[in-house]
Write a structure and sequence with these properties.
The structure is a single chain. The protein is 40% helix and 16% strand. It has 292 residues and is α/β, with parallel strands linked by helices. The strands form three sheets. It has a six-stranded parallel β-sheet. Strands 3-2-4 form a three-stranded parallel β-sheet, with helices on both faces. Strands 9-10 form a two-stranded antiparallel ribbon. The N and C termini lie far apart (45 Å). The relative contact order is 0.17. The structure holds guanine (GUN). Guanine (GUN) binds next to strand 4 and helix 6. Guanine binds next to strand 4 and helix 6.
Length: 292
């Protein structure tokens, strides 16, 4: 069983990004990333902090807008419009999910698609579905695909089951894997909470991508002997035995699943660092495209 080291792979990719940032900066285009977070969800703030930290470390111009929970739709739209019009900003990310009173769809549609480094704008969703090379692709599925490529895991002709159908992970993951080319050409099944015989469907996968958002949902009987398992989940669960009182687990019951796999990602240290690396990569792409 191979443990796929997402942290090490992400570090390698970040070094390439650092070089690209230096080159752009020397040309007078310092890549700029703005992250916007509304409300005080601790997990969202933790994600935003690490995005801001990594972008700064890689030499980017980094801006964070932490807005109070009671920010109105109009105020948030105004922040997005201001960032759209700011030439020092090439990538904009509004952390999801926002508070309930915010219409997230309208916020995403207000983004300049050329600055939509999350790949959530309908223009970018359509481009991904069309297989256009200049789509911005959501960072988590892009990171999963890159993990497979960097680990030498062949997707062409493989039976891949994507467990989860969200707009952030499951749907774009399925599109990426079925598109033509490197890291694609797979036979893709999308399974979810309403799928009949879920364990049996998942157990047909050569590659299983777990993105259902439920702690340790995928048990040993979901996984074929020799399968590759990519665990997208980041779930905080109570753990009285740890100093913090909690720990992070994935969507996969790692202890019972790992022995059956040919390769598996750990949580933490698997997909998580790749998501951030792909956000940095997308921001460089945005700066290159806008400055061309
Ligand atoms: N929330 C969970 N994942 C993501 C992501 O990739 N981008 C944004 N904006 N919010 C998220």
């Amino acid at each position: 069983m191979t443990l796929i080291d997402g942290k090490a792979i992400a570090q390698r990719i970040n070094e390439q990004t650092r070089a690209a940032v230096a080159e752009l900066t020397a040309r007078g285009v310092k890549p700029g990333l703005a992250v916007v977070v509304v409300g005080d969800d601790p997990a969202s703030h933790a994600y935003v902090r690490s995005k801001e930290k990594t972008s700064t470390e890689l030499g980017m111009h980094s801006v964070k807008h932490a807005l109070p929970h009671d920010t109105t739709q109009a105020q948030l739209l105004e922040v997005v419009r201001t960032l759209n019009n700011n030439p020092a900003i090439h990538g904009i990310l509004v952390q999801s999910p926002p508070p309930k009173h915010i219409d997230e769809r309208a916020i995403v549609e207000a983004l300049d698609p050329r600055k939509d480094v999350d790949g959530f704008h309908p223009i970018n969703v359509a481009k991904l579905a069309l297989g256009d090379a200049d789509a911005f692709v959501p960072c988590t599925p892009l990171g999963c695909q890159r993990l497979l490529i960097e680990s030498g895991i062949e997707t062409a002709g493989a039976n891949v089951v994507v467990l989860g159908r969200s707009m952030i992970v499951g749907k774009p993951m399925a599109l990426l894997l079925m598109n033509k080319g490197r890291g694609g050409d797979a036979t893709v099944t999308v399974a979810h909470s309403r799928t009949r015989n879920l364990a049996e469907v998942c157990s047909r996968a050569d590659i299983l991508i777990a993105a259902i958002g439920q702690p340790e949902f995928v048990k040993a009987n979901f996984v074929r002997e020799g399968a590759v398992v990519i665990d997208v989940g980041i779930n905080r669960v109570a753990d009285p035995s740890s100093a913090k009182g909690s720990r992070l687990v994935g969507d996969v019951a790692f202890a019972e699943v790992a022995p059956k796999c040919s390769a598996i990602t750990p949580v933490p240290g698997g997909v998580g660092p790749m998501t951030i690396a792909m956000l940095m990569h997308n921001t460089v792409l945005a700066a290159q495209r806008i400055s061309r």
